[in-house]
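Hi R.,

As promised on Friday, here is the backbone we talked about, encoded as structure tokens. Could you run it through your design pipeline when you get a chance and send me back a sequence?
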């Protein structure tokens, strides 16, 4: 009789442990879902930023082409050579600045792509972990139900005894 009570007590403690684990997993799942939403927002933000940078690159490339064309036409008129030479120097400086800006934008774009990839990996990892936690939760819930059923059967047999 004492052994049954002890076993019943142990089953109750085990059921409480499972219930606590269930609550912990439920809270952890909620945190992962919140983190997932944050990561999705970050991916959206980075994608938008990426598109903006690509548009800026396109504009800068057009500006570079325009400046190059201006340099080609500057040689046509020899009488305005001094004025054109100043203009060429200015355009070359602008071209250099634009190329530097283009390099910086390209680096930013590469960094944004890397960030998007990292965020995607984190998101996939979080989704896998979430799936594993859901599976574990289902197992724990099944064990809990089985333990509860055994406990109910023991109580019933004790009452009949």
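Update: got your reply. Pasting your designed sequence below so it's all in one thread:
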């Amino acid at each position: 009789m004492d052994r049954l009570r002890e076993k019943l007590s142990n089953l109750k403690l085990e059921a409480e442990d499972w219930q606590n684990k269930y609550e912990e997993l439920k809270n952890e799942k909620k945190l992962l879902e919140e983190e997932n939403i944050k990561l999705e927002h970050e991916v959206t933000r980075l994608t938008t930023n990426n598109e903006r940078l690509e548009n800026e690159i396109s504009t800068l490339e057009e500006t570079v082409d325009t400046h190059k064309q201006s340099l080609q036409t500057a040689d046509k008129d020899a009488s305005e050579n001094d004025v054109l030479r100043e203009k060429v120097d200015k355009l070359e400086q602008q071209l250099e600045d634009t190329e530097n800006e283009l390099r910086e934008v390209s680096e930013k774009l590469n960094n944004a792509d890397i960030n998007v990839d990292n965020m995607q990996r984190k998101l996939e990892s979080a989704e896998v972990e979430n799936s594993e936690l859901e599976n574990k939760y289902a197992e724990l819930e099944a064990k809990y139900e089985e333990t509860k059923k055994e406990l109910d059967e023991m109580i019933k047999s004790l009452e009949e005894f």
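One thing I noticed while checking it: The chain has a mean pLDDT of 89.

Thanks again,
M.
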